[in-house]
Amino acid sequence: MCEGDNSAQFTWTTLFSNETDVTCADCEKKFELITGDTCPKCSRPQSDATVCDDCKKWEMDEQYKGTLHRNISVYAYNDFMKEVLAQYKFRGDVALVKVFQKKWTAAFQHHFPEKDLLLVPIPLGKDRLYERGFNQTLALTEMLPGQFADILTKNETVKQSKKSRHERLRTENSFEVKQPPPEKRIVLIDDIYTTGTTIRMAAKRLKEAGATEISSFTLVRS
């Protein structure tokens, strides 16, 4: 990520190696872990641990009320993370996923210690998957312990990040469930939680298919 002598060289070899310390100390310090008080529903950093206004609005929405139990995010979306995430997602640098492995896995085991969970990665549409060459969320999911199932599909839509909150809420749900989920607590996996629309749309489809409790685990909270 940096040009210093101690920076890690990301190759297919390092991707599949057992080495977990793949960042230099300087780069590691630039990542900002979410600590302190946060919204208990979405992990938004704030001055207290009460439910934030956005989550209150979601719970007043009859369409999405109760769809998401909680979201846990690991990192804040600072400038350094923004650049690294762009390199990972949009420039095809899949090996960068190893940068997050240690803290990503530790945070998951801390917040989701239960064994009887089903991890469900948020899918990409076919066109976007072709553009990127890989699903960044699936790569994150594969680093976590436990069972996972690729049971969601997604139709192509305009990127959620390009829409306003109002436009996102009006967007037709682009997710479909390929097969009924088993009777397990589900944890949706995604790279970033912004407004919560993507996660809740996926959760809504899973609820309609019979899922009971759905949480989400995301790398970044913007």
UniProtKB/TrEMBL annotation:
InterPro entries: ComF/GntX_DNA_util-trans, PRTase-like, PRTase_dom. Signal peptide: none annotated. CDD domains: PRTases_typeI. Residues 176-221 form the Phosphoribosyltransferase domain. PANTHER family: DNA UTILIZATION PROTEIN YHGH. Belongs to the ComF/GntX family. This is Phosphoribosyltransferase domain-containing protein. It comes from Sutcliffiella cohnii.
